[in-house]
């Protein structure tokens, strides 16, 4: 009976997956191909399919699967347990909110997104404020429906990173903050002068594309199971593990943006391509969490992509395409790729200071959701923290409080994933280097095979079979520990900036 | 009550439309963008969505709409009547076949398509024969379910061209056959020598693309509500009237193929873009029939696109892109574009001989479906008719009986639409010229506005609000009459070939 029921569930989940693949493909097309006038119809199309997907997830069929299977949990194998657990999680997350509330919220977010765009354009937080207030209010209400233990924000963290709490994250981020600020202050005292002029000039988009595609194949992205296209904001999406689509955006005035966003998205993409076929139709053929996903994109982008070893492969390649690098040495190239500067914009931040941008958002979100601060205080708070942690201050709201769109659709609790990705990545790296001390030598020849195999075996193939916490313990033998990332940063940046 | 019910039906049909738009978009992506390894998953995705679409069309909800609304037909306006009529047609066409039969048939066609590809590759009809026998057998069974009056083939014709019968079509095609053969025999006696050498050489694909896009915009295709991409076989698809997608295929060894397939698909596309917004969610925001659709593509491709007036606009443009045309005169260019040659391959046939290819298929299909000939006799029959009507004989099955894939998925009754498209087009042309005698002068300057407005007003905007028969009578004052096309052919080709 159990096997039969499990197979029925798998059939159902496979259909649910297919429907969501259709939505993802139609969304991808909207961002890459859609003609200008088709926007309204496309919105309706996506809304219709999303409603169907919502219905499938919150149906009595799902309720019955959960009720029928739950008594047999001790007879199930790991895969079956996780399958049921994830289904229950998603079902509850959706079902606990009254449908009319949810529909209202979707409308509010839709307006908030438009207001955010206008506000950013006008560099005026006041335009966005009333909308943000509503989004916060609804989010707080939703937390009441979902329930919480100690801290309301825990419920949001748990959505993106199963089992994560503010208690744990406070410790992690405090250690990270101290570490980054220590390194940053030493760098500020350094007399090292890094030249980046050769990264700016005119870089033909077609040539950038050729180079990006060559690098993408080199790092191990399978072009027979994926594509690289152009969109305003780079992203990765996939429809199963054999159709994984990345986008980038070529800026002709500088060299690194398109290439490294391609490598970043490539990391997400390689992860998706490597998830086991066996997980199809289980709801687990996805990344283990947002942070684990981000750990992979950042592993390829920063840990591998900006390593001195890979730079020594990349520089001659760059010279093939652009004369700008003719007289650039490996040291100059490597240092320019890893230039550190406390700055205002998160998405343009370097590997070192990036964490501080996230910690600022985390601290603000936590207080906001718990009602300790109000939306009207956000801007003051934001600017104060930027001054304090990074020593910079926004000249206007567009480069301050309005820079990210995440709050407009209520994605509170999401930002920490970005920073956690760096921590997971460095902890994976530590284990990798212990097991294979000379592995970075491969990068000098642009060889990624062995590293990819290791990541596939340890991380990728499992999809969401293990929780993030299980995964990091299985692989590294301990829970997430920020010390590995701080060590990695010190090792790298003290050397670059000649400090100790 | 009636209005309420009609609005409910519209809501239902709008959802059904959306689902089919999703399918069309996913299919388009498969033909243009999909990575190689994604084929299997894509097939499953399309199958799942097609099943959902099938369920929506054959649901009790639809049955109830039909039953509830049918008694009120005399109180409905034209739009409401046609809406119900088309729904009933589609419902019956699908519902009358037992579902298990239909599922078997889909499997048979899928295998037949693969067998057809192999057979064509091997140039061996024997590989395809057993599969075709099954497809024919099922088609004959389906006709029994659907019902028929005099001729079994009528049921198939009616699917693509509402109200068309073999009795009517025999007359039309006989007149057409006599006409074409008369013109063809005169051309064969002509001493006129047409040079086409300059159409062959090396034509850079990027340049062809630029030229095709320029011409596409000139003829009136709205690039803000559509796209042009590349696929192996050119086609047009759309998701509503504001997202219409054409494909073409650039062959670098010759000039006309990509350009004129772009203009052809552009004709289909302009039709779709011009269908009224008011028809959304009625099931009538589509072409009036396959043949009417084909009349528009051929109107742009042949009647306008290969006219001497448009050639005089096109030639200087072609010279901008390709030196090959440097010393080519307008007469030479125009004549090369309209070169007539009895040949073997339907898709490469000229405007004059094209009809004979269709008539051969029509005569064969009619006998085959009525059981007067067997699949094993097809090849002999095919070769005999090609010898008789066109004076050519296939050297192998790939350039004979296996050239088209239509039979592999049971599309019997579809071929006539192609030839009828030519007839409808010429009859529309006759009315247009009566109303606006000097209108072709516009084409010398690449101006299509007034012609497009006329076609939009008379044909396009109505979608499927009128049946093909109503449409041709409304516009030209009489039923479809092949004499207009024959007159058009005589006028054009007697002049080109200096005969009378």
UniProtKB/TrEMBL annotation, chains A, B:
Annotated GO biological processes are: proteolysis
Superkingdom of the organism of origin = Bacteria
Give the enzyme class.
hydrolase
Q: What is its EC number?
A: 3.4.17.19
Q: What reactions does this protein catalyze?
A: Release of a C-terminal amino acid with broad specificity, except for -Pro
Q: How is the cofactor bound?
A: Binds 1 zinc ion per subunit.
Q: Name one GO molecular function term.
A: metallocarboxypeptidase activity
Check the record and name the CDD domains matching this protein. Answer: M32_Taq
What this protein needs as a cofactor is: Zn(2+)
Binding residue positions for Zn(2+): 264, 268, 294
Q: Cite the active-site annotation.
A: 265 (proton donor/acceptor)
Swiss-Prot/TrEMBL keywords: Carboxypeptidase, Hydrolase, Metal-binding, Metalloprotease, Protease, Zinc
Q: Give the matching InterPro entries.
A: Peptidase_M32_Taq (IPR001333)
Q: What family does this belong to?
A: Belongs to the peptidase M32 family.
Q: Which PANTHER family match?
A: CARBOXYPEPTIDASE 1, METAL-DEPENDENT CARBOXYPEPTIDASE
Q: Please give the function described in this protein's UniProt entry.
A: Broad specificity carboxypetidase that releases amino acids sequentially from the C-terminus, including neutral, aromatic, polar and basic residues.
Q: Quote the protein name from its UniProt record.
A: Metal-dependent carboxypeptidase
